[in-house]
Specification:
With about 325 residues, the chain is α+β, with helices and mostly antiparallel strands. About 35% of the residues lie in helices and about 20% in strands. The strands form 3 sheets. Strands 1, 2, 3, 5, 6 and 7 form a 6-stranded antiparallel sheet that branches. A 3-stranded antiparallel sheet has the order 4-9-10, with no helix packed on it. Strands 8-11 form a two-stranded antiparallel ribbon. Strand 9 and strand 10 form a beta hairpin. The longest helix is centred in the N-terminal third of the chain and has 20 residues.
Length: about 325
C-alpha cells in the first residue's frame, strides 16, 4: 500500500510539472475553416483558482497559409476594442505577439495580452462570493490574397474564447501571502476548538481502571471461534466526517442545492483527511477535476445524484472513472 501511494504521488507531481511547462499551449481550438484555424482562451483556466487582481493571460493563436491569407493586426488596440464593454477587465501590460514560420508557407501567429479582473461583474457595486464574467464574442478579419499579394476577398470569423466565462473565487487573507498552505488559513484544520471542561480527576481515574478491568475480563472470556457470525460480519460504520457525509448523501429527500453542497464537503474532507491534499490545488488529477466540476454546480437534481455519487465512490476507492 505504501509503495502504491508513493507511485500515485509521483504520477501527480509529474502531471503538475508537465502542465506548468505547457501552460502557454493550453488554449483550446474555437474555430476552423478551409483557410484559418483559431485557438483562444485564458491560459490559467483549469490550472489554479482565479481571484480578483490576479495576473492572467488572454491568448489567440491563428494558423494559416501565409501565401493565401493576410490577418488583421492583433495589437493592443484589438484587445481594447474587444473588451470595451467589459469595464472590469483591464490590460496591465504590452501584448506579446510572435510569428512562427513552420515551413511550406504555414504560419502560426500567437498574441498574448496580460490582463486583470478588478471589479464586480455587470457593474455591480457589491458582489460577495464567487463571481462570473462572460467573455465577449470576438471578430477577426482576414483577407484572401493572390500570388501578387492583391486582395481577392475579405472575410471575418466570430467565436467566443473558451471556456466562455471566467469564474472568480473569493480569497482569504493570510500572513504568508498567496503561497500559504491550508493550515495558514485554518490553524485548527477547519475543526472547532475542543471545549475545556472542568472534570473530577478521581472519578475519571476510577472509570479508566474499571474500563480496563472490563476489557481484560471480556477479552479472556471470548474467542474468535465462539463469536456469533452476525458480529463477525458487522458492516463498517462511519468513523469520520467525510464518511458521515457520505452516509447522509443516501437521503434522497434532501433539496438539490443542499445535496450538492454536502457532496462538495464530502469530497473536500476526503481529500484533506485521507490524502492530505488541498482539493483546490489538485486540478491535474482525476479527483481534482471531479472536485472542480462539483464547485461549478449550484445544485444536483435527483436524476443526476447516482452518477455523481458513484463517481466519488469509485475515485475514493482508487478506481478510474
Amino acid at each position: 500500500m505504501a509503495a502504491l501511494l508513493i507511485l500515485r504521488i509521483a504520477l501527480v507531481l509529474a502531471l503538475l510539472l508537465s502542465i506548468d511547462s505547457h501552460a502557454a499551449q493550453s488554449v483550446p481550438q474555437v474555430y476552423q475553416d478551409e483557410y484559418v484555424a483559431i485557438r483562444s482562451g485564458v491560459a490559467e483556466i483549469g490550472l489554479r483558482p482565479i481571484h480578483l487582481g490576479d495576473a492572467l493571460s488572454f491568448i489567440i493563436e491563428l494558423e494559416f497559409d501565409g501565401s493565401q491569407v493576410r490577418v488583421e493586426s492583433l495589437d493592443e488596440d484589438f484587445f481594447l476594442r474587444t473588451f470595451a464593454s467589459s469595464e472590469n477587465i483591464s490590460m496591465h501590460g504590452s501584448p506579446l505577439i510572435t510569428h512562427e514560420d513552420r515551413g511550406e508557407r504555414h504560419i502560426m501567429l500567437r498574441a498574448s495580452w496580460p490582463f486583470q479582473i478588478l471589479g464586480c461583474p455587470d457593474g455591480l457595486a457589491d458582489c460577495r462570493g464567487d463571481k462570473h464574467y462572460q467573455l465577449p464574442v470576438i471578430t477577426i478579419s482576414y483577407q484572401l490574397i493572390d500570388d501578387a499579394a492583391a486582395v481577392v476577398n475579405d472575410k471575418s470569423v466570430r467565436f467566443r474564447p473558451r471556456p466562455g466565462s471566467l469564474a472568480v473565487v473569493s480569497a482569504l487573507a493570510s500572513p504568508h501571502g498567496p503561497a500559504g498552505e491550508f493550515l495558514d488559513y485554518f490553524p485548527g484544520g477547519a475543526h472547532p476548538d475542543v471545549l475545556l471542561v472542568e472534570g473530577r480527576r478521581a472519578a475519571s481515574l476510577a472509570a479508566i481502571i474499571a474500563g480496563v478491568l472490563l476489557l481484560v475480563v471480556g477479552f479472556n472470556n471470548r474467542s474468535p471461534q465462539h463469536m456469533p457470525a452476525q458480529r463477525a460480519a458487522q458492516s463498517h460504520a462511519p468513523a469520520n466526517r467525510w464518511e458521515h457525509a457520505l452516509a447522509s448523501l443516501r437521503n434522497d429527500s434532501m433539496p438539490d442545492d443542499q445535496w450538492a453542497d454536502l457532496l462538495r464537503r464530502c469530497a473536500s474532507w476526503y481529500c484533506l483527511d485521507e490524502l492530505g491534499l488541498n482539493p483546490h490545488q489538485e486540478s491535474a488529477t482525476e479527483f481534482g477535476r471531479f472536485f472542480a466540476e462539483l464547485s461549478e454546480l449550484e445544485s444536483i437534481g435527483s436524476d443526476q445524484r447516482a452518477e455523481h455519487l458513484g463517481r466519488f465512490i469509485r475515485l475514493s476507492s482508487g478506481e478510474s472513472t
